[in-house]
Amino acid sequence: MGRLAVAGALLVALVALGASSTADAELSGVFQEMVKSECHFINGTGRVKFVKRFIYNREQYVHFDSDVGLYVGDTPYGEKVARSWNSDPEWMEYRRDAVDRHCRHNYKLSTPFLVERRGERGAERVPSGPALEMTL
């Protein structure tokens, strides 16, 4: 079993048993880094916003916003990272193109499954109103 699985199993056991705050000090060596990419569609693909967030230990330290066109630091460390990444013009051009490459491309691929299939099953089987969220 890998270290990550052992740490996860230990964390679940401690939470389930209601471990005291002293156990938190023992788990302080477990860190998590996460990157989230989001596409926000307004009026179909008429206006698209791409946001990429970099998170370390549940704290966002830097993010890219396509409306701004640059990385923005959210913490002192993130500001240093943003300056470094923003200084590379080739990398920034690649990141700015992510709106077309990632968001609009995936929108075209997923539209038939998300939008156009809605009425295929027949009106009697497609729920409306609040039940829509629970059944689909």
Automatic annotation (TrEMBL):
Residues annotated as transmembrane: none
Q: Where is the MHC class II beta chain N-terminal domain?
A: 37-111
Q: Where is the signal peptide?
A: 1-25
Q: Which GO terms describe its biological process?
A: adaptive immune response; antigen processing and presentation of peptide or polysaccharide antigen via MHC class II
SUPFAM superfamilies referenced in this protein's UniProt entry, alphabetically? MHC antigen-recognition domain (SSF54452)
Name the domain of life: Eukaryota
- Topology class, membrane: Single-pass type I membrane protein
Subcellular location, principal: membrane
Q: Write down the InterPro entries for this protein, in alphabetical order.
A: MHC/Immunoglobulin, MHC_I/II-like_Ag-recog, MHC_II_a/b_N, MHC_II_b_N
Q: Does the keyword Transmembrane apply?
A: yes
Per UniProt, which keywords does this protein have?
A: Adaptive immunity, Disulfide bond, Glycoprotein, Immunity, Membrane, MHC II, Signal, Transmembrane, Transmembrane helix
Q: Is-annotated flag, keyword Transmembrane helix?
A: yes
Q: Which GO terms describe its cellular component?
A: MHC class II protein complex
Subcellular localization is given as: Membrane
Stated name of the protein: HB22 protein
- Gene field: Hb22
